[in-house]
């Protein structure tokens, strides 16, 4: 995020907050995860592939008996996702957790998307239920990449174990730009502080890792 807490600006072009070294850190974290999750708005706005880019990391996953790529996961309340998005046209297995009423329409929209399953996730999208279903599917380590609404749900509902945050040395300065989190009642507050586990410089960014204790 930027120094003032933004993930992007409001221009049509994606704002690059990270440098090559930090993108490589993210690639390594993806390679070490069983699944990678982003929100539906991130797919619509950024059109991410969410792949492991380094061929040696992919080969190491295969040597360990894992699929070449982590499972890709998204969550949507409306079901308005396009099968042509790179999320669906690249990589391996994909799971789309969808509000119950939107499942039929979303399944129809994604009929041609390879290796994609649409899963009902409750009337209002039940995040603990999603995590329980992922666990039943063998997903032990889930990387939640964003965006802000997804970060907010995981943190406000106390579902995250760690926060990995890279801070870029500039400001966005636009209250309408997407933020790391939105307004919510967070259990990680002044009375329940997180534990600082790691800090280091990555180029001109600062990387911090917080562990959420319970």
Automatic annotation (TrEMBL):
Pathway: Cofactor biosynthesis; riboflavin biosynthesis. It comes from the Bacteria. Keywords: NADP, Oxidoreductase. SUPFAM superfamilies: Dihydrofolate reductase-like (SSF53597). Residues 1-204 form the Bacterial bifunctional deaminase-reductase C-terminal domain. Pfam families: RibD_C (PF01872). This is Bacterial bifunctional deaminase-reductase C-terminal domain-containing protein.
